[in-house]
Design the sequence.
Protein backbone atom coordinates (compact mmCIF):
# COMPACT_ATOMS: atom_id res chain seq x y z
CA UNK A 1 0.00 0.00 0.00
CA UNK A 2 1.34 3.39 -0.97
CA UNK A 3 1.28 6.55 1.11
CA UNK A 4 -1.33 8.05 -1.24
CA UNK A 5 -3.63 5.08 -0.55
CA UNK A 6 -3.30 5.74 3.18
CA UNK A 7 -4.07 9.42 2.64
CA UNK A 8 -7.21 8.54 0.66
CA UNK A 9 -8.32 6.07 3.33
CA UNK A 10 -7.81 8.56 6.17
CA UNK A 11 -9.49 11.43 4.35
CA UNK A 12 -12.55 9.30 3.61
CA UNK A 13 -12.57 8.11 7.23
CA UNK A 14 -12.58 11.74 8.39
CA UNK A 15 -15.16 13.02 5.92
CA UNK A 16 -17.38 9.92 5.60
CA UNK A 17 -18.38 11.35 2.22
CA UNK A 18 -16.82 10.47 -1.14
CA UNK A 19 -17.43 13.91 -2.66
CA UNK A 20 -15.87 15.87 0.19
CA UNK A 21 -12.95 13.46 0.42
CA UNK A 22 -12.32 13.81 -3.32
CA UNK A 23 -12.49 17.58 -3.07
CA UNK A 24 -9.98 17.67 -0.20
CA UNK A 25 -7.65 15.36 -2.12
CA UNK A 26 -8.08 17.24 -5.41
CA UNK A 27 -9.13 14.07 -7.26
CA UNK A 28 -12.35 12.74 -8.72
CA UNK A 29 -14.91 10.78 -6.73
CA UNK A 30 -14.20 7.87 -9.08
CA UNK A 31 -10.51 7.97 -8.12
CA UNK A 32 -11.38 7.75 -4.41
CA UNK A 33 -13.78 4.88 -5.06
CA UNK A 34 -11.26 3.02 -7.22
CA UNK A 35 -8.49 3.43 -4.63
CA UNK A 36 -10.76 2.21 -1.86
CA UNK A 37 -11.83 -0.87 -3.82
CA UNK A 38 -8.16 -1.61 -4.53
CA UNK A 39 -7.35 -1.38 -0.82
CA UNK A 40 -10.28 -3.60 0.13
CA UNK A 41 -9.26 -6.24 -2.44
CA UNK A 42 -5.66 -6.15 -1.22
CA UNK A 43 -6.54 -6.79 2.42
CA UNK A 44 -9.68 -8.85 1.84
CA UNK A 45 -12.09 -6.93 4.06
CA UNK A 46 -14.63 -4.15 3.65
CA UNK A 47 -13.22 -0.90 5.07
CA UNK A 48 -16.38 1.16 4.81
CA UNK A 49 -20.04 0.20 4.94
CA UNK A 50 -21.64 2.22 2.20
CA UNK A 51 -24.82 2.60 0.22
CA UNK A 52 -26.10 5.31 -2.08
CA UNK A 53 -26.48 7.80 0.80
CA UNK A 54 -24.20 6.79 3.67
CA UNK A 55 -20.57 5.92 4.35
CA UNK A 56 -19.70 4.42 7.73
CA UNK A 57 -16.55 3.00 9.25
CA UNK A 58 -16.49 -0.75 9.80
CA UNK A 59 -14.88 -2.19 12.94
CA UNK A 60 -11.78 -2.99 10.88
CA UNK A 61 -11.46 0.55 9.52
CA UNK A 62 -12.03 2.05 12.96
CA UNK A 63 -8.96 0.19 14.19
CA UNK A 64 -6.99 0.89 11.03
CA UNK A 65 -7.45 4.67 11.25
CA UNK A 66 -5.34 4.76 14.41
CA UNK A 67 -2.49 2.85 12.77
CA UNK A 68 -2.71 4.79 9.51
CA UNK A 69 -2.72 8.13 11.32
CA UNK A 70 0.63 7.24 12.87
CA UNK A 71 2.06 6.60 9.40
CA UNK A 72 0.72 9.88 8.05
CA UNK A 73 2.24 11.74 10.97
Sequence:
Amino acid sequence: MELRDIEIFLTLAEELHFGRAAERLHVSVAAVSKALKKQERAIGVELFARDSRNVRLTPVSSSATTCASCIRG
